[in-house]
Amino acid sequence: MALALNSTLRWMAASDSEKAALADIQGNILDGHGRKATRHVLLRFGEDAAASRAFIRELAPHITSTLEQLTAAKAFREHGVSGGPFLGLLLSSSGYASLEAAQKAPEPDDGGAFVQGMLARAELLADPDAGELDEPYRQGIDAMVLIGGNPDAADSWESTETENAETKVLNILQGRAYVVAVEVGRAIFKDNGTDELGINKIEGIEHFGYVDGRSQPLMLDELVERERDESDGISVWDPTFPLGQVLVPDPGSPSAETGFGSFFVFRKLEQDVAGFKAREEEMGEDEALGGMGELMGATLVGRFEDGTPVVLQRDDGGDNPVMNNFDYAGDPDGLRCPLHAHIRKTNPRGDSVRQFGVSLEEERSHIMARRGMTYGRRDRVVDPTDKPNGGVGLMFMSFHNNLATGFEFTQARWANNPGFVRDGTGRDPVIGQRGSAAAEDLTVRTTWGKRDAATATASFGEFVRHKGGEYFFAPAISTLRAL
Ligand code: HEM
């Protein structure tokens, strides 16, 4: 095997065989593609499997490999040269079947997650019934072409680059699959003031207004070193993960040496910004809950809007660069960062080690590479007084070596589970889904950081609605060429 999945990789010093693997693995897996505009073309294949396979073979040479992506990103950093559009192709289990290529599909040990698809996992995930999802997602999706590109201008909603790339894909498609939906993504930003040099700090956010995409597993040595040297460091929370955190051998590839892929989650999550912000503000002003103001929102997410971790500070402003070198060892009972906070539920950074005695390695095995993109039209630098109650949200995307121990574990066993990390913790207020069970209140500590703080309970609604999605695999490019 050309790649050692149990370690990180220094890609700039890769051997020829490692380079061959990086040229075969699709981009966006080991590092985000970084484009600020996306189009997601969701497909179902028809009766003629041979024609659909021919379409994929013809598209394969246009798919962006990891090596191309990393090389282009380096050129962009050094010379400002844009890498052009990004193209990825994801296949679901039903997609492999419709292509009559089931023998090439991965056969993961994941309790049936990949083979069954996301719809069949609704109960486990506490997702809404199929009838409540956006129409295209009421049945399984066979494939997704992921297109990334630059917007026409920094403040423009339009992206001719991604539209042209989509036209190119549709020209190759020539009716050999049905387009069931095209989702359009656009990164949004927050003006985080100016730093000490007077430079304007613009950070990527999600629609509730919080800096997003900061904490990621890093699998390339170059990224780990940049984190170590150019941010707040890696001495407390080590973001270093082996390639095998996301990569698995792709059995469909003609080359066992270079053929690797990754399991991919796509979920369209609509955000009721008006509802979330109103409740957040109401709770912040409620004297019975301590009259915490901004701090209230930070305790729900685990970070202030500017990204400052609430376990480190009771005020925002620690955002240069946004801090990520922390864990909860000094706050085991959630006096500073509540146990229910979104980032603590989805990455407990040692909480389950203390609580259940599992190894840190076991806890870290659930960590995912998030590649989400916001959707829905708002000003690029968001006007905080504009609060839509629908039509905007997050196209949540993530890569895993296993869907059951990665995404499903995080959503079902951690976020949705009021008993994690211990009884009385409550659900994740951002993404926790209760299914049919009754709502449970959050326990709010009315003073930050004080062991003897009074506690009060507060109900919190569900302001993120699942609108549909699918489980996919990102095959090696050699697999696509040989279909
Ligand atoms: C981190 C928001 C959905 C898992 C974050 C952060 C924000 C955020 C603001 C902090 C930024 C960072 O630490 O990088 C949201 C919103 C969502 C959403 C608004 C839905 C609309 C999800 C889902 C999952 C998830 C569905 C997985 C089931 C994570 C993880 C982290 C994170 C693992 C990093 C935690 C850490 O390493 O400390 N999210 N998120 N998020 N989110 Fe979400």
TrEMBL record:
Annotated GO MF terms: heme binding; metal ion binding; peroxidase activity
Cofactor(s) listed in the protein's UniProt record: heme b
The protein, known as: Dyp-type peroxidase family
A single GO cellular-component term on record: cytosol
SUPFAM superfamilies (UniProt xref): Dimeric alpha+beta barrel (SSF54909)
UniProt KW keywords: Heme, Iron, Metal-binding, Oxidoreductase, Peroxidase
Lineage summary: Bacteria, Pseudomonadati, Pseudomonadota, Alphaproteobacteria, Sphingomonadales
Organism superkingdom: Bacteria
InterPro entries: Dimeric_a/b-barrel, Dyp_peroxidase
Native species: Sphingomonas aurantiaca
